[in-house]
Amino acid sequence: MSENKKRVLIVEDDKEIRSSFVVIVNSSSQFQVVNGYSSCEEAIKHLNADKPDIVLMDIELPGGMNGIKGAKINKDKWPSADIIMVTVYEDSDLVFEALKSGASGYITKSANYRELLSALEEISKGGAPMSSKIARMVIDNFHVNPNSPLTKRETEILQLISEGKTYTQISEQLFISKETSKTHIKNIYAKLQVNCKSEAIAKANSEKLI
Amino acid sequence: MSENKKRVLIVEDDKEIRSSFVVIVNSSSQFQVVNGYSSCEEAIKHLNADKPDIVLMDIELPGGMNGIKGAKINKDKWPSADIIMVTVYEDSDLVFEALKSGASGYITKSANYRELLSALEEISKGGAPMSSKIARMVIDNFHVNPNSPLTKRETEILQLISEGKTYTQISEQLFISKETSKTHIKNIYAKLQVNCKSEAIAKANSEKLI
DNA sequence: GGCGGTTACCCAATGCTGGGGTATTCGTTG
DNA sequence: CAACGAATACCCCAGCATTGGGTAACCGCC
Questions:
Q1: Helices (runs of H) and strands (runs of E) counted in chain B
Q2: Helix (H) or strand (E) holding A58
Q3: A-B interface: how many C-beta pairs under 8 angstroms?
Q4: pTM score of the predicted model
Q5: Is the Cβ–Cβ distance between A127 and B136 less than 8 Å?
Q6: pLDDT tens across B131-147, in order?
Q7: B182 CB below 7 A from strand C atoms
């Protein structure tokens, strides 16, 4: 019976999309819709009553709160729910913001019957449903630049700089003299065309040098 | 004919696994094995002749070079190839190291006929094949801690600290006095129980506060 | 033998850092 | 309304870090 079904909450302002999601989810023997809201504010108020296992959250929502902020608060008030973001966009920044906010899956509104149910199944078994394109975006985000102008040692030192280490701490950690760290750092600055630590870190991140 | 088939290179020291991979890949109309080697050193020598579109790379390899280093050099010498890591482990650190080194997919040695071919298909269409568990590990890696003890402003300042910014730069960027940045930073140090920038950054990363 | 990478040292001026305080304003919440 | 947390701002001070300018030795590899 319904006691064994995973409880799905839907936050989506478009009534047609919301009702079609309700129909699809309820058609499954594994899942049941516990409630549907058109705004995060509403949904958050009833989390303790709805007790969702999975939340389908639209990113583009009316009112003060979009799905990104909504996911954060949702995770805060009801941490056990897994959140799947639903969106029309596959824009890079939006995806990463959504993932940072606590989402564990990312599907598009054009998702059909099978795609929606398989996303629910995937997240239920501890996976992270997402499109091929988004999976690749996420993986590419990890890759470090193979064309770095820096040597191995310089990269090692840039890593320590990005951890906030001072010349002294770097020299102690690498068993080299303080003056040697200075030399390496001067060379790093020249190669990256920067002249202070913060700019070096910014460049290291933007060009994925570490 | 073979001109339209994606060229697959196999780097795997276990002869049995290697030959079974060869048979499976060649059984597909979309893929052909161009070569198989038992070490990265060998594979790298022949990249310009083999011209792989996809590399199936074992992580645990004999000789000086493991699959992580191998993937780096491979990406360096032949950047157009997509690399799929093949391993027996789904260990967290190893996965992230592999992804950083340039891999775009991650499958286990226990992969059967269908799993191997679907990984090849997935990577061909621009995706990133990986198991449910790894997908979730990767996604979880993005999540920021919802139970941070820091206020919004403090988190903002911690972010700037992690970018290497000085008190002065922070105050200029946030349009506050230098003394105010100092106050916030003192409060951050107290809450995180640290007493310098590097420790704060380390804690911010380990506890995913930013 | 030359080249790149790593190590090491000199001088000097500037200003950042961290620890110790205190205090005002503002919005929320009880 | 009173209390509280959050954000703002200022004081003093010792000490060390940072950046910029050089020069040079040693090692391994091609």
A1: 11, 5
A2: strand A54-58
A3: 116
A4: 0.91
A5: yes
A6: 999 999 999 999 999 99
A7: yes
